Amino acid sequence: MSIDAALRALTPLLGDRLSVSKSDLLAHGQSETHFDVIPPDGVVYPRSAQDVSDIVKICSQHRCPIIGYGAGTSLEGHTLAIQGGIAMDFRDMANVVKINDEDMTVRVGPGITREALNQELRATGLFFPVDPGANASIGGMASTRASGTTAVRYGTMRDNVIGLEVVMADGRIVRTGTGARKSSAGYDLTALLVGSEGTLGLITELTLKLQGQPEGIAAATCAFDTIDAAVEAVTSTIAMGIPMARIEFLDAASVAAVNAHSKADFPETPHLMVEFHGSQTGVAEQAERFGEIAHDSGGSAFDWATNAEDRTRLWQMRHHAYWAILASRPGSSAIVTDVCVPISNLAQAVRDTQDDIEASGLPAPILGHVGDGNFHAILLIDPNSADEKRIAKELSERMAQRALSMGGTITGEHGVGMGKLGYMSSEHGAGWDVMGQIKRALDPHNILNPGKVVQVNG
Amino acid sequence: MSIDAALRALTPLLGDRLSVSKSDLLAHGQSETHFDVIPPDGVVYPRSAQDVSDIVKICSQHRCPIIGYGAGTSLEGHTLAIQGGIAMDFRDMANVVKINDEDMTVRVGPGITREALNQELRATGLFFPVDPGANASIGGMASTRASGTTAVRYGTMRDNVIGLEVVMADGRIVRTGTGARKSSAGYDLTALLVGSEGTLGLITELTLKLQGQPEGIAAATCAFDTIDAAVEAVTSTIAMGIPMARIEFLDAASVAAVNAHSKADFPETPHLMVEFHGSQTGVAEQAERFGEIAHDSGGSAFDWATNAEDRTRLWQMRHHAYWAILASRPGSSAIVTDVCVPISNLAQAVRDTQDDIEASGLPAPILGHVGDGNFHAILLIDPNSADEKRIAKELSERMAQRALSMGGTITGEHGVGMGKLGYMSSEHGAGWDVMGQIKRALDPHNILNPGKVVQVNG
Ligand SMILES: Cc1cc2nc3c(=O)[nH]c(=O)nc-3n(C[C@H](O)[C@H](O)[C@H](O)COP(=O)(O)OP(=O)(O)OC[C@H]3O[C@@H](n4cnc5c(N)ncnc54)[C@H](O)[C@@H]3O)c2cc1C
Ligand SMILES: Cc1cc2nc3c(=O)[nH]c(=O)nc-3n(C[C@H](O)[C@H](O)[C@H](O)COP(=O)(O)OP(=O)(O)OC[C@H]3O[C@@H](n4cnc5c(N)ncnc54)[C@H](O)[C@@H]3O)c2cc1C
């Protein structure tokens, strides 16, 4: 078999940096959500772009699939070895290569996690803003075009990756982007690779934009009686042009789960969690104007997190909400929806989703980065119930189709992996074929994360 | 000849929307800079995506080149018909399709100019921020990944185009992006097409992000004794995290040209032109802090444009600076350089450029969007002097190579066209081959603006 041949050829090159131990294979065959375990045939731990290139050349020769692996926190079965092959785990390429304070950029290895990176940046007064709930790797975040609570202010990985070093499917090492803030020098390969989920190239280094720590920060939670009231406060805030750094929505069920998991005592009603960044006076002004809007929309129980620890605790609770929600139904697994709609349709989309959830009978808390029009229903299912799985999949499909009919997208930030493959044609039409053409041109033997994102026989 | 066959086949389809009149061909064979006139064999004026698709299918069949044409203001010979074929002029697809106030987006035809668009948006309180000096078409701006004075705040076309309708080289009509603010649904075709200069597809509609008119605006000019002092003020302002909406540099020669052309009376020394956007108090705070920085760097003759007319006049002078500079040497034509470097190297890059210019003996005013690290030397040459042309080209090449050695790019915003083709390999290495692979996959017969941006026989 070609995969076996590849493993044999890799052994002398990698020694114990090639593992076929059962526990390693299993660990890399799992995912955070409802997918079955699908282990790879081997796991490699490269230490440099040259390593990656050497591995890719061997795998290319033997037509052996290679699946990039960061922290394994992706939610659509992205890293599962559905055609076998090797997982390429970037844990040993997790260094900070160089911080350029003056240019507010940093070069990092793909394996570094966002928390480790921000730890390293502490002394500089700079930070990297993109913050998915999990402590994901920067390479994985680039590959899924991740975002998080701060995207409403600082953008997603699309906006915060300015250059890459990538190993292509034939082993060539390519650098995209420059150290400059902008360029018109040809096709935007950086943007093409960001969000490509390891199907076009393997990222071996990233240059990231950094932000200065704001002089002033104010964060608050605000309770609402109804979902509608909370969403109305969001759309009004956006319409008024108030620059939010974060504006997160949690429905009553999400709040209850967070209370239980984080020993908090929020009133168990729909909530917004907000944060403002700017100068001291700017932040005070923004907070005051948001307070008025929230009040007009019926918000109450305003709670300002005045010091840094309170703020850290607040956002930690938010970041752990997924696990809190999972824990709210012990033994359950989750189908995580991830629609994103134009702001003008947000209220309707959330309302309709709520109705769907009620009709389904499934526990399915809703939360999300509503400042972007992006929200998730976490559909909690009994993994042993085929019925619940079917109902959840139907519900998930209805949400995706509704998002499309409202001019939105089937995935705001989690990506396609295996889970969203079935909706790609509905979203993109002929554009999905164009993606397939690009895939075939750049990975003619279909060895990079095959079976994900695109269809190669289009 | 295949082009003749294409023209014959297009005639019944287009009637008088296909022109082969000498004046039309000449008008489309010119460029704003030093390139020789190279007219196409015909000019077509489509009215819809379907028209474009029909035309492309015929041209594809006959292997006839098609060159997208917006306002023809690009600076690197982008629209010249170096392999013959037809110019596709989008002047009749210049409509506003739909304004979505609530989502702060607009859908437009590619032929609309940025000034016409902002005129149409007037009543909404929204505006489209990207503003190259010329009154370019939005389709052309997307195709060159244009920016302008406000990119430091609002980004370039990369950041402000959220979706496209595009006709591919085989006539397929493809929609990229959605109405949502972000998406992780597969490859970022929007970003791939933005900046592709008509070599991958023809843009027939764009969805753009809009901005709310800021509540407060303050603009000023500030004179400095030396270039160094002015650039130092820029880097300090950035380091302090003061959010500028615009920060433009003009050297003494540029100021002199502007004075002569716009009947202004700025002191003829290096200048910064700045603008701040925000709430009234925010703007006042920013302006004050900038004032302190400028003062510390030796800035003087601070002149605040307090009312809207003064501001309009100020930015009009800036936008017309290119023509002012051209007029400063009657009968000259220009080679326009467009390097962009990391901010940490900006001062050195400008200094070295100045030294080069002095050594060359050519008149070559420097100006630029320094907040992005982007500046231009406008090399004024006697079009009949082979010597001057050679000296200018050497100087331009030295600037490009220096930008690369400093971690920057050969073109911050103007694009590649013909003029920068020779440096693409230096900037991108193997990445340029990857661009060629994409081009071959999406335009196998090389009919879309052939000879520009990429090399198809790589
Ligand atoms: C609790 C929780 C909360 C979350 N919240 C968010 C959120 O707010 N926003 C959000 O966007 N996501 C969120 N996610 C999803 C997940 O964190 C993101 O998708 C993240 O970007 C995945 O990063 P990772 O390092 O875990 O990548 P992995 O799961 O390891 O891999 C993801 C994909 O990238 C590829 N890949 C990884 N590294 C490389 C590389 N170096 N080169 C090429 N390809 C590579 C893989 O092949 C795979 O296709 C959440 C997940 C959890 C569990
Ligand atoms: C005085 C002056 C100042 C300038 N200042 C700036 C500046 O500050 N910043 C900046 O970025 N540029 C600047 N430019 C350059 C120029 O304005 C930009 O490059 C602009 O984006 C070109 O737009 P256009 O409509 O004129 O395009 P064109 O010149 O007509 O075409 C440009 C390219 O786009 C392609 N194209 C056009 N329309 C389409 C379409 N619908 N589909 C596919 N391809 C298409 C063409 O084939 C060509 O390759 C300046 C130019 C002048 C003369």
TrEMBL record, chains A, B:
InterPro entries referenced in this protein's UniProt entry, alphabetically: FAD-bd_oxidored_4_C, FAD-bd_PCMH, FAD-bd_PCMH-like_sf, FAD-bd_PCMH_sub2, FAD-linked_Oxase-like_C, Oxid_FAD_bind_N, Vanillyl_alc_oxidase_C-sub2
Pfam families assigned? FAD-oxidase_C, FAD_binding_4
Which cofactors must be present for this protein to function? Answer: FAD
The enzyme's main class, written as a single word, is oxidoreductase
Task: Name the Enzyme Commission number(s) assigned to this protein.
Answer: 1.1.2.4
Q: Which UniProt keywords apply?
A: FAD, Flavoprotein, Oxidoreductase, Transit peptide
Limits of the FAD-binding PCMH-type domain = 36-213
The family note in this entry says: Belongs to the FAD-binding oxidoreductase/transferase type 4 family.
Kindly provide the name given to this protein in its UniProt entry. Answer: D-lactate dehydrogenase (cytochrome)
State the organism named in the record.
Answer: Octadecabacter dasysiphoniae
